């Protein structure tokens, strides 16, 4: 015998899972939504700084950070202080 409570709990679980996946998809798809990349590429130094900040702050995916680029733009990067401390071990 099924109870109303079981259906309600199942629906709540489905809603939570959907909201979680929507949030993940939003974070992955929308991390560069306010940046005009075509305009930014016209200034190679600013583009390199922006790209490093994106890689550090939002994840690398399958890419690797170029250590010489990181050293070159280290002072100009706007990153989380704890990430800066961690990365300073490698720079």
Q: What does this entry look like structurally?
A:
It is a single chain. With 91 residues, this protein is mainly α. The protein has 2 domains: 1-30; 34-91, no CATH class. The protein has helices spanning 4-29, 37-40, 44-58, 67-72, 81-88. The termini are far apart. 1% of the residues are buried. Mean pLDDT is 76; it is low at 25-30.
Topology, element by element:
Layout: H1 4-29, H2 37-40, H3 44-58, H4 67-72, H5 81-88
State the main characteristics:
91 residues; mainly alpha; extended
Q: Please, what is the average pLDDT?
A: 76
* Helical coverage, percent range: 55-70%
The total number of structural domains is: 2
Radius of gyration, whole Å = 20 Å
How many helical stretches? 5
What fraction of residues sit in β-strands? under 5%
Largest sheet: number of strands, sense, barrel closure: none
Shape summary: extended
Structural class by secondary-structure content: mainly alpha
Q: What order do the helices and strands follow?
A: HHHHH
* Poorly predicted regions: 25-30
Regarding quaternary structure, what we see is single chain
| Beta strand count | 0
- Straight-line distance between termini: 64 Å
């Amino acid at each position: 015998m099924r109870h109303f409570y079981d259906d309600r709990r199942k629906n709540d679980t489905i809603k939570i899972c959907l909201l979680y996946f929507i949030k993940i998809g939003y974070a992955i798809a929308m991390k560069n939504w306010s940046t005009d990349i075509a305009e930014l590429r016209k200034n190679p130094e600013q583009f390199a700084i922006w790209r490093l900040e994106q890689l550090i702050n939002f994840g690398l995916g399958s890419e690797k950070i170029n250590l010489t680029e990181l050293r070159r733009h280290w002072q100009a990067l706007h990153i989380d202080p704890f990430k800066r401390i961690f990365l300073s071990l490698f720079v």
